[in-house]
Hints:
The protein is 22% helix and 33% strand. By secondary structure, it is of the alpha+beta class. It is globular, with a radius of gyration of 16 Å.
Amino acid sequence: MAIPNEKEKYSYADYLTWNEGERLELIDGKIFNMSPIPSRRHQQVLRELSTAFSVFLREKDCEVFFAPFDVRLLADNKRDDDINNVVQPDLSIVCDKEKLDDKGCKGAPDMIIEILSPSSVKLDRWKKYQLYEKAGVHEYWIVDPINNSVEIHLLIDAQYKFQGVFTKDDTISVNLFPDFKLDLNRIFAKITLI
């Protein structure tokens, strides 16, 4: 079924009836189209990040998931009809297995990474930033594949605190996993110039 345009606010129940081929997100019941598909650069950075996290998390309690993977936020004890926030972060780290089901994640992941695309800058830096903060995502990274940088925000006293911008010359710690150091040069080195 195609997406109807007659409602002011949509739910996860509506979302489940739409075409599987379309990449859409719901924020406060409003539809956000994730087209066009991500660039090659975006996918290269996603591959390197997901590999680094997957290798580190092997045999640990937390798991890494990459888009498309539905994350239903602010969904505690709610039915599908009452959930109005469904996102597909580029990378999600989930440590509480109780939040995982066959549909994805119901509740806030411990960490989310969004990789900027020209069409997603405002959404990732503003709407999703606010949503992830409100939902209680502990660590939020915004990755810029054009400028080879990572911006880190940590949830402290229910508000994001900016931790800085790091470039490919930096090795950074993951707050969620203090013994995990990420060499950004390794993440960005394999990016093919367009």
